[in-house]
Amino acid sequence: MTATPERLSGEGLGAAADGFFDDMVLGPSVKSLISQGYLSPAEIYAPTNIDLSGVHTRAGEYITSELNAAVDKPTITGSAVDHYRRLGNREPAIAFCCSIAHAEHVAEQFRQAGYQSSTIDGKLDDRSRRQRITDLSTGTLNVLTSCDIVSEGFDLPVVSVGIMLRPTQSLGLFIQQTGRAMRPYPGKKRALILDHTGGIYRHGMPDDDREWTLEGKKRNGRKSDPSSLPVRQCEECYYVHRPAPKCPKCGFVYPVQAREVEEVEGTLEQVDPEEVRRIQKREQAKAKSLDELKAIAKKRGYHHKWAEYVYAARQKSGRRSAAA
User: Fold this and answer.
1) pLDDT < 70: residue spans in the chain
2) What range does the domain containing 299 cover?
3) Residues 181 and 299 in one domain
4) What is the pLDDT of residue 309?
5) How many domains does the chain contain in total?
């Protein structure tokens, strides 16, 4: 069982792709689990403007040493502390870092800012690791920083803030990390995701409907262009949301102007998921041909057969209407 049935390399998990499985049984979607109360809705702020142009890729993921140098900078770490103070002050938080050294540095920055913070890594003995997790759950620690230890299979429902400080090309890893803060807990109204890496623009919202497959996917090497994405930053509270006449967070009414997303270094912007999905549905409805649907699938990073499935369903529906 997994919430993210894909490999980082893009190779399929199915037997036909040298994997192990013959069939995939789909469970309930993240969206339906949220609506039924089994997961908490995510409130996301993103992104800071991080330059990863000099970071190379090996085996489908960023090279750790280059990534560490790119993200472990005072301007980035400092903004993580500032945004946590502004948006999730003293709430139990996990910060996902790209190396042990980065995690230790981030924890020190939080301590210098007056928070109780510690690291968790593979070098810790089991007793110390359990104690730090317990301290986070009881409020003795405010922020626990980590490199890979709590990304997958970690269940501490009291955590309500996920601080994303590790850029990743892996959709699976990104979803697993955001999921650490989405466990329901008494009194928790939302999971706060502070995405300092801009991963939301590469991978989409945590509760997006995705076309999972055992066949794998082709890697096209295309980089996301944040300026082309249907999101908007509030000029008053910096909340990022899907395009709307006014900010759904603070109510600020936008003046009529060209549609642009203003990126301010070190500032996170909140995303409104429902407006993005409405825009996606309208865009899909306007696509009349198979080629137009394929262009949408490529832009959104969907599996290449998604367009064929949608087009075939439309043709079948049209034939039924004609017969009636």
Assistant:
1) 7-10, 47-51, 72-78, 150-153, 216-231, 256-267, 273, 275-277, 279, 298-301, 303-304, 319-324
2) 287-324
3) no
4) 85
5) 2
User: In 186-257, which ranges are continuous DSSP H helix?
Assistant: 199-203
The amino acid at 230:
P
Asked whether residue 143 is assigned to any structural domain, the reply reads yes
Whether 258 is covered by a domain: the verdict is no
Q: Which residue has the tokens 């295309």?
A: 222
Burial of 168 (0-12, 13-18, 19+ CB in 10 A): buried
DSSP states along 111-173: HHTT--EEEE-TTS-HHHHHHHHHHHHHTS-SEEEESSTTSSS---TT--EEEE-S--S-HHH
Give the separation between CA 45 and CA 225, rounded to whole angstroms.
Answer: 17
Indicate the SS3 state at residue 14.
Answer: strand
User: Among 203, 226, 243, where does a domain finish?
Assistant: 203
Residue 319: φ, ψ to 5°: -65, -40
Q: Of 258, 266, 263, 277, which Cα lies nearest the Cα of 233?
A: 263
- Token representation of residue 171: 């959709």
pTM of the model: 0.67
Please indicate, yes or no, if residue 107 is contained in any of the structural domains.
yes
CA of 64: how far to CAs of 53, 89, 95, 140, 190, in Å? 14, 30, 17, 31, 31
Q: 153-165 pLDDT, tens per residue?
A: 577 899 999 999 9
Q: What is the CATH number of the domain that holds 89?
A: 3.40.50.300
Edge-to-edge strand ranges of the sheet holding 117-120? 117-120, 143-146, 93-96, 161-164, 191-195, 42-46, 269-271
Question: Does 234 reside within a domain?
Answer: no
C-alpha–C-alpha distance, residues 185 and 104, integer Å: 28
Q: Which of 203, 231, 265 is the last residue of a domain?
A: 203
Q: Which helix (H) or strand (E) holds 192?
A: strand 191-195
Six-digit token pair at 248? 């759904």
Q: What pLDDT shows up at residue 89?
A: 96
